[in-house]
Fold each of these.
Amino acid sequence: MSGLRIALLLWSCYGWLPQLSAQTFDIEQFEQAFRPRLRVDGRFQPESAFRDTTGQLSMLEGTAVATFPLRSHFKAGLQLDTAARGLKGLLKNSIRLEASQLLGSVRVGARQVQLGFDSIGTRQLYTASAGLMGIKLTRKHRVLFWSANVNASEEDRTIDALVPRFNGVIGKLRVNGLRKQFFYGLAFSYTDGLALPVPFLGGMAPLGGDWTFHYTIPAQVAVGLRPKEGTRFLLGVNADGFRSGMEWQGERVNMNHASLRAFVNVRHRINRTFQMRADVGYAVLQSARFSGTDLRPNRYPAEPALVISAGVNVLFGRSVMQRLLDEVLK
């Protein structure tokens, strides 16, 4: 599978986890994805030249995501397991814990893209999505998670011809202590005629001291440092991309942007409610491709570019996922 398709899938399917193609993953972010919250992000990529044609590529974007609970269930009980071997097995197998949560999510975003190919100066691209996500604790104390969304991504000139897009994720998470987790699953995306099923796996493992190793295959690898409680640095490489409808020479086409970037990310927890983050990256490889048009060639590589982003999380209340991590899995 091409790097472009992987990047597009990551952008469309992993947005709730949260937006892995442009952000990073660890257990703290996983817990926050399944928590009532408001997440706001801004991002800027200065101008970079196309290699094979005239014009400049630059982007300015902002997104907001709201997550809210629809149904929650958390129940603990005791039922002796007479077949258990030893006291440890008896205690572990006799605890009956039921935990699940269903949440809704709404996401809106706007992106200004400068191409310089024609008389249209700045392209105004918009995206909106709504969906459901859920978690459930299994008998073996694994977290089953899933997400399903419907999305529209269009330029302001093509909103009257928008095409709905669909994506979903299903997977399992295993937690072995505070700094060691493993997850795996399958992501699926259908975006305007492009169907992409991709398996994924990832996790976090301690490297010694305050260092950890993070991986999400095929999205990202990174090394983390937590110098003090509430602050985290990540240094790594990840795939990034987006797909949006737009007008090109009088017809609707899809613009596909994909990149491979190195990044440094810092997150700081101000208190239990507010968290801030900043990210500086460098798109080592990037290109724009246009589908649904007779233009040849329709793929335009661009020079490397700086990418700067910042955001804030506003957390509301305690989630079932947080209770599982605090009281059961850790």
Amino acid sequence: MLADEDLHRHAVANLARADALLFGRVTYEMMEAGWRGPAAAEARPDWMEPFARTIDAARKYVVSSTLDRVDWNAELVRGNLGEVVQQLKRQPGNGLFVGGVKLPLALAELGLIVEYEFVVQPRLVGHGPTLFAGLSKGIDLKLVGRLEFRSGAVAMRYEPRR
């Protein structure tokens, strides 16, 4: 299902709350291919432009052991994931926004995620990645926000119970 205008506005607001984006290699490459440059712009409606401008301008950190270099306002980060992310989180500001499948799993295992947002789309597809598959122990969450969209999608924000 293609995200609609409401979901894109919500995503822009979320990105504006963070100082930088933290991506794994796969998510970085997918987002760069979809949102960077004039070729990507030709294939999208005008209402997607605020998100495109926001993500294009955002500072990005890319966790990868296979990439040699990144650009698109990005910095390659290597080393111990927990130490690297804790160092980034200690920088002044509002924090990081994390996207993807594998990287959030690794950060959840390390207890480094302070807020989760899940957007549930009103569509069953029967395939795709399973979020947090392989998590070694459960994480109890507390609902801290809920937003319904005209499309029927629902964004739910949770914090880990401590």
